[in-house]
Amino acid sequence: MPIDRRSLLASGALLPLIGLQARPAYAAEQAALEKADYTLRIATGLAELAPEHIVSTTLYNGQFPGPLLRFKEGQRAVVDVHNDTDTPELVHWHGQIIPSDVDGAAEEGTPYVPPHAMRRISFVPKPTGFRFYHTHVVAGGDLNRGTYTGQVGPIYIEPKNEPGAFDREVFLVLKECEPFFSRGGDMAMDFLAGAAIKELGDLGKKADDEAQEKTKGYEVGYDLFSINGKMLGHGEPIRVRQGERVLFHVLNGSAGEIRSLALPGHTFKVVALDGNPVPTPRDVPVLWLGTAERISAVVEMNHPGVWVMGDLADDDRKRGIGIVVEYAGAKGKPQWAKPRPRPWDYTQFGKADTVTANPDETMEFTIVKHNGALNGFNRWTLNGEAFSMEAMKPIYKVHEGRRYRLKFRNASDDIHPLHLHRHSFELVRVGGKPTAGVLKDVVMLGGFQEVEFDFVADNPGMTLFHCHQQLHMDFGFMALFDYA
Ligand SMILES: [Cu+2]
């Protein structure tokens, strides 16, 4: 009797003999028959932020921001990524603990989606909560590439049991458009808790003195700002009823800006940071989010009116970064009032008992800015080394199962949203204060400050660490970890 492949595979008893060779072929065949859970199509398109402001950029499925993708905990997901552009693309599944070949970073070995081609991606989504997806290509000096485009979208990974202490969920994606190069910026810098460390200031001054270029490098500014793809006053308002508890999932989808968000007369009860529930939920008047950070916060709608929920920066809010919140029955022009400033302190959401497990190893990184060192762009070094996109060398080795403490010392005046791929980390010390129990994948490090966080090496494979400011990561601020 001739044995064809089908009957061979159908005969369970033979499977162990076929072993590893036959399985991938079988899996690929099965996958081809399977319908993808989601299809993402990367292509240029138009985003109408307002009738007078229509932007041409690269989008997912022609939408800005990209569609909300919902996954289920523990349930394998299949996503087809079509690249209709002329350049290679990568979709990064930010904040998920998944293998390197699907994570979406070339530095980790994820294959690109070639121009005018499709790549099928499959992974088991985790951890639960608010995550997001975005492009992970290098932009360098091209403001039509990378996260300067409209390639960003929210993800929610549904837990098997949702506590659900809210009436309604609203996702907010904060994002800028029309980037341009400038010298110097006007970003808020004084909102983080903690004080500058003199030694780091001295190190920064030394680097400034040694720099051949005496002018600071380029920064990126933006003309237009949006929430959920619309400038303030141009999208649908968030319609609420008195007494409602609204759970906001806020994502800073910027390429490099820090954002704040306030709703006059209301407070946010922060319940999760980067999608991970915090040990101590707290009421705050203003949310602060570094690039790529997410905050989930409940607002009790107990102050009827028509309000502007917006950024504290007047210029940016006037150019679009806000959304109207309208109570049922309320009328009139949307009102804005700036809340009194209060420092943003991650440790307030931590455990009262601040004892964390001891690390097996500590690694220290000193961050230095070299003004205008790369054709007018600032060059960034970690312990004297700028990441080389050519060499892509994993300098740092970790051992599976061990707990690592990473200590970052910032000898620059910039705030850096530090991001570790494929792992969550626990904050240990921020702005001089110890903490425990706050799990994140991005943390802002203040100018001339230090931050310490721990991660357990529990997801083997190449692992990228970088500053989430596109302009910083493209000019040296990256490091690659590999499992020994
Ligand atoms: Cu940075």
Describe the protein's architecture and organization.
With 484 residues, this protein is mainly beta. Helix content is 11%, strand content 42%. The chain has helices at 5-10, 15-33, 100-103, 198-210, 314-318, 470-473, and strands at residues 38-50, 53-60, 69-72, 77-83, 91-94, 117-123, 129-135, 152-158, 168-183, 218-227, 238-240, 245-252, 259-262, 268-273, 276-284, 286-289, 294-300, 306-310, 322-327, 361-374, 377-382, 396-398, 403-410, 416-420, 425-430, 433-434, 439-440, 442-445, 450-456, 463-467, 478-483. The strands form seven sheets. Strands 20, 21, 23, 25, 26, 27 and 29 form a seven-stranded mixed beta sheet that branches. Strand 20 (361-374) and strand 21 form a beta hairpin. Bound molecules: copper (II) ion. Copper (II) ion binds at residues 414, 416, 467, 469, 472, 477.
